[in-house]
Amino acid sequence: MTLLGQQSRAAASAAERYKDVPKQGRLDALRPYIVKYKIFPPNTDPNNAPIRMEELKLLVRQWNMHHERNFWRNHPDKDSVVMALYKKLKELKAIKEAKLNKPAVSVSIPKPVTKSDFSPSSRSPRKTMNGSNTNLSVDVDALMETGSDHDFNPDSPSKAFQKNLFTRKEYAHKSIDLEDNHEGYLNIVSTQGLLVMSRSDGHINKPTNPNKLKKAPKSRPGPENGITFAETDDDDIEATSTHPHPHTSSTPPPSENDAKTRVKRKCAAALLNMSLREQMETQFVEEGGLSSLLELALSTADRETLIYCMSCIVNLAGEGSKDTKLFDFNIIAVISQLGDTDDARIEQYVAKSLCFFTMLDGTEERLISEGILTPLSRILYSKNPVTRMIACKGLINLTHVLAGSTADSVNKSIVGCLKKLCVLGVPFLSFFCAHTIQILSTLPMARQKIGEEGAIEILNTLIREFSEGRTLQAVAISLCNLSQLKSCRKEMVSMGIIEVLTDMLNSGGEETVYLCTLALSNLTAQADLRLIVARKGAISVLCKLLLSPDTKTQAVASKSLANFACDASCRLEVVKNNAIPPIINLLRSPDEGLRHDALGAICNLLSFEDTYMNVTKSNVIAALTDIMDQKMHLEGISLALYNMSCWPDTRKQFVEEKGGALLVRLLADKDLTHIQKQMLTSISNIAASPASHVALLKSNFAGKNFVQSLNQPIQDSHARRKEPEFDAADFDETSNKIAMILMCLSTTEECCKQLVRDGAVILLTELAKQQNDDTKLCVAASFQNLSLKVVLTDHGFLSALIDISNTTINQRVVWCAMTFSNLTSYNKGRTMFGKEIQKVAPCLAAMMRSGCDDAEKIQKHCAIALCNSLSVWLKKEHIEGLVQSGLIQDIIVIAVLRVNVDYIKTDLAKALANLLYTLDTRLLMVEQGIMSSLIRLTKQVRTSEVITLCVSALTNLTAEPNLEQQYVESLLEMNAIHVLVSQTVKPMAPLEVKKMCGAGLAALSRLPITHKHMMKEKQFVTAIGRIGSLKKFEDVVEQAMEVVWQLCADRDNHQALLGQNVVPAIVQLIDNGNFATRQLGVTSLCNLSLSDFFFESVTECAMVTLIATIKLATIGMETRLNAMRTICNLVVHFEPARKLAVDSDIVPALGVMLKLLSDEEEKMIMAKIMRAISFYGGGHVTIQDSKGMNILLRLSKMENAELKSDVSIALLNLSTCMFTTQLIEDGVIEAIFWLTLQDLLGLTKPVNERCSAVIRNLTGNSKSLGRVVLEDKVMTVLKKLADFNDEFVRYNVCISLYNVSCYQDSQDLMVRHGIIGTIVDLAEAGVPKMRSIGSAALHQYPQELLKDGKIIKILMSLLTMDTAVMDDTEVVIHELGYGANNDNDNANDIDNDNELTSVPVKWNLVGAKVEYSLIEMKQSWMNPFVERQMPFIAGRVEDVVEEATGHANY
Fold first, then answer.
1. Residue 1059: burial class (beta carbons within 10 Å; 0-12, 13-18, 19+)
2. What phi, psi does 287 have (nearest 5°)?
3. How far is CA 219 from CA 222, 350, 636, in A?
4. Smallest Cα–Cα separation from 1445: which of 646, 877, 400?
5. What is the C-alpha separation between 125 and 275, in angstroms, rounded?
6. Rounded CA gap, 779 and 773, in Å?
7. How does 274-301 read in b/e, with b if 16+ C-beta sit within 10 Å?
8. Would you give the DSSP letter of residue 672?
9. Which residue from 103, 597, 622, 766 has the highest number of Cβ atoms inside 10 Å of its Cβ?
10. Does an H or E element contain 1158, and which?
């Protein structure tokens, strides 16, 4: 019954490993003498105290060995000293035995010794036999003394009593050498039970030392005292025997008449004496002495003669003789005949002689054929127990050659004899019985028979009645051997042998304990008896035996406990008896067998659910660590660790106690490749518990970290791949285990970085090359887990990842996609994938098309990976390669058509946008449809991200330097303007989108080809307004304003712009923008003012803004001038604008502006405005109050004739106001003075007409007349105008003078200024009406001033004056249209027949010109990538944890 499997290969070298056993034997032989001389230190147990070098030195001195020359130099160490002492001990024993050996005519049966105990040189002159020396046992000392200097010599002349039984290899049962072949012993124990052979067995290469055998004293025979029956070891049996002693023989001495009898006696005595001389032995036989002896024995009935004759025969056949010539004389038949007697002494001598014959080598068959069995069997029934014992010995020597029924009959007879002897109560007979059963139990052909005939009963009797050490020892050996038989085991148990063995174990000697342990172990080999044995306390006893100093005992006990441990019915008893700690302690034993047994027991206990925890808590891993150097146990250690790893609740403790380091160490052992799979399974089991990961990863050995150790099986397999016996399937399984281990470890966040540092990625890359789908699945999970914490850039990793992703296995594809996605979250990962984009992109596209169950998840992560991979700088040739392979179109199709989830489309949109980043291939990408795809995606996915990406790409394309040559047509074709506009006007349009749309539209607006497309957009102006609403971003507003400016510059766009109500948008932009925005806005308004249909809109919406612009001192002069031009266009050509301009404080604005202008052309614009607004009668007061006269005064001083003309018109219009006081105070007269100061060429007359009309109007206003006459230059101006050769001018002057003359308070002043002379001159001009008016004027002055004759004539004309001339009305000017580009000023005099001279006043509609530096459109290409929050959610492949097993196949 195989319990623990086959033994390891160490069995071949068992003898070498157990070489220390003889040394221990020699030490034990010296112990009695160390005790005797009281050498041990006080307070120590002499029987158990260790023998140290100090005790050995004292013993050397006790025996005076130290006086030997150079003794200490020749014996420097403990072993050499022990050997010297042991030799000395043998010498002392030999001397003692020589003193005790005296010649005697006694017959003795010596102790069984080996042939090597004697040599021809050591043979005594004649060996005799002491009949009482019946010790058939193996001496305990002899058992241990295996260090004898004598080798076994089969040719030795010495005759051992048991020679045939133990010196015949061809006949003996194959024995177990307990000292030199322990491995074989353990093997047989595990399969057959334990069998103990005598130490004299021929298989023992080192025989017993004969010096330790106790020799019986011998006496030489003599006729005077007869034959002495001497005993050495036991009490004298003669006292209880029935035959008479030779000295007290009842036979009467022969009479003198019986001479013949006396002669025979003398002859017999002579022959006896001759037989004692060795040198006469051959002569005695050859010269007829033997024949005479036999004839004499057969011819007499005299008892004394027969005793002499038998003594002589005994001496001839005795110990040391090997002469077979005796058989030629038919000595067996003679002895057999002599044995048929009632004389006990003769019968005993017959038995002894026959017994000695059976000790001769090679004579068994002859002896049997000559009928030796008959007398020996007959003597078994002798009345003398010693004689029966001797006969038994003879039969035992022949038993090994017997067979069949003969053997059974002889064995039955022997057992029957023993049954009678064992009850006699004689110690040496009891020992003989025990030893005989011991011997017979070693023979397979005899063991079964004696068991059936009651050998167990005999042994039971002996155990219970005797406690002698050697007897118990023999009984123990017998029990061991008989326990081999199943039939005997149950009988032994039923007879209570277990209790007896237990007692013997507690009280017996070392060898007895060992033998009892063997017997007990044999009982445990039978499964149905094991539980009974356990419950009778055997386990606790065995546990104690584990502490025995005897290695053999420990070995047997450990084997027994191993049997208990592997039995499901008994293992709990092992635990209950606290046997686990002793078993574990045996692992540290120096004995290999003990370690082997303990390891087997531990393996079995660890394999059961109800016992594994007890072993684990007993610090078993530390014990296993201690024996890691013992290679013969590595397989067992591996199995123990495997069993422990199968239990989840032990795994944390497993790694904390460095169990992982043991597995790593085992895995690195190249001699254990056949169990690598088991070790990997153990590691896999441990790795299944996350709590063990950190500690497991720290396991290392011989400079190799944990990951490198896992790589060892892979390397070994590669090295053996070309070998014929290489098993690919086994390699796949190994690879799968390693991948599973790495996968489990990678599920712990703290382990990921350490795994990468230790080279796990390289190992996984290697594993990815396997064809096993389970392995690849674990690799994919590991990659995904590691990528959550560390960027993986190891050599070959990317190729491996791409390879394992090429599958339709859903979970594998998911993890590969997640790995790609995770790695692109790192800069290094994106860079790596970017360099290998020609490999990565097709792989990602293929996974997105894989159609797996988790398609959405796969597409999500692949989209992220693709986006991030394309976000780095890509080589031109790589992108071109993607185009040639059709991958770009494939990605577009996937993004637009295949993917249905918005957030995935968003990521793919980012990927497409990244393709536009590279300048060298941007045009190619646009041609491939990337931009149009983005636009299409904005319609499918209405998320801000996609819109932003699309608008950003469009904006950047519009900022291309070669926009017009390369991109504009494509952009217009894909309706880019509509996209920008539509995205801008969306209610929730993001701020950035608006800004980018503004930039894009601004860039496009610079190309005239785009204007018509812009005008087609019905919400274009609305979009501009939305952009312009971004007050905080003035640059964006400026860009929007630029768009409007570009469009307004083209009059073809005005009608469309009017339809979209562009002016409010412009005003909004101006209000929200910076100075440049205002500049462009004013320019745009000015350009719009060129179209008459815009007059109303601009006036209503922009007048205030324009006037405010003029007022802004911080605005550039050009912009302010453009604002003036715009206002001028409006007020000149659009009458309603005048009122709004005046109401909006245009005059103060012009006043501010006037101070800054130096160019008359610029002032001309202001004059035009003043002229135009002066036609608005409701604004005259406002103009005056706003200091408009100051403006006109300053303008009047200009030299430009047209400007003066405009000023004169303005003055004329203002003079018609009822309230002119302010006008006069602000210098209207002075302005007229400047207007009339110089010749204006063609405009002199109109100007003078208007100036004269102004004075006429002012003087005709009674409210202002008093203020006018006070003006210093009024008379100067009137005189100047009176001198002008124009009837209308003079007429106006004449009326003015009349009005002045009528003001009494000023007459004196006027007179002093020569007014009378001027009136006279005008009256004499010859115009009747002027003469009448002059006459009337002169009548206002005193008479004393009118004495001149001319004056009188003039005064007389008053009598004939038409009174209608005196109805003075103010002179006004009426504005005419500008169809002919003329300005015809009409004035009606009092006769309605005078008009103001028509003077052309030119003001064509003027557009604005502006020096504006276009905003540089800077490209801001983004490389969008998806930033992921990567919580550590590890992928895991579920695996079935292996079950523990107790079958240690190691």
1. exposed
2. -95, 20
3. 9, 20, 61
4. 646
5. 10
6. 10
7. bbbeeeebeebbeeebbeebbebbeebe
8. G
9. 597
10. none
CB of 882 within 8 A of CB of 838?
yes
Closest Cα to residue 1353, out of 1319, 1380, 1385, 1403? 1319
The Cα–Cα gap between 727 and 280 comes to 78
- The 3-state secondary structure of 1304-1321 reads HHHHHHHHHCCHHHHHHH
Rounded to a whole number of angstroms, the CA Rg of the chain reads: 71
Tokens 């999500």 sit on residue: 860
Q: Output the six-digit token pair for 457.
A: 């009963």
pTM of the model: 0.60
The type of residue at 766 is: E
For the CA atoms of 628, 629, 634, 640, the dihedral, rounded to the nearest 10 degrees, stands at -20
- Kindly give, in sequence order, each residue whose CB lies less than 8 Å from that of residue 257, ignoring residues fewer than 6 positions away: none
Whether 457 contacts 418, CB under 8 Å? no
Maximal CA-CA distance, the chain: 253
Tell me the CB-side half-sphere exposure of residue 788, using CA atoms within 13 A: 21
**SS3 for 1370?**
coil
DSSP string, 1192-1239: HHHHHTS--HHHHHHHHHHHHHHHTSS--HHHHHTTHHHHHHHHSSS-
* Residue count of the chain: 1450
Across the chain, which has 1450 residues, the per-10-residue mean pLDDT values are 36 46 77 87 84 88 84 86 87 72 35 33 32 32 33 32 28 31 34 32 31 34 32 34 37 58 84 76 76 83 84 75 73 83 84 84 83 86 86 86 85 86 83 85 80 80 72 78 72 70 71 75 72 75 77 77 77 80 82 81 84 86 86 87 87 84 83 83 87 85 84 80 76 87 89 90 90 90 91 90 92 93 90 91 92 90 92 90 91 90 90 88 90 90 86 88 86 90 87 88 90 90 88 87 89 88 90 89 90 89 91 88 90 90 91 86 88 89 89 88 88 86 86 87 86 87 81 83 85 84 76 77 76 78 71 68 60 56 38 47 67 78 78 77 52
CA distance 775 to 14: 43
Q: In sequence order, what are the residues at sequence separation of 6 or more whose Cβ sits closer than 8 angstroms to the Cβ of residue 879?
A: 915, 918, 921, 924, 925
Q: Are 358 and 163 in contact (CB under 8 A)?
A: no
Contact in structure between 1385 and 1397 (CB atoms under 8 Å): yes
Q: Which residue has the tokens 């005595």?
A: 269
Structure tokens at 1354: 């003039």
Distance CA 1448, CA 1165 (A): 115
DSSP class per residue in 947-1011: HHHHHHHHHHHHT-TTIIIIIHHHHHHTTHHHHHHHHHHSTT--HHHHHHHHHHHHHHHTSGGGH
Q: Which of 264, 335, 331 is nearest to 301 (CA)?
A: 264
Query: What number of other Cβ atoms are within 10 A of residue 92's Cβ?
Result: 13
3-class secondary structure, 1294:
helix
CB distance 319 to 131 below 8 Å: no
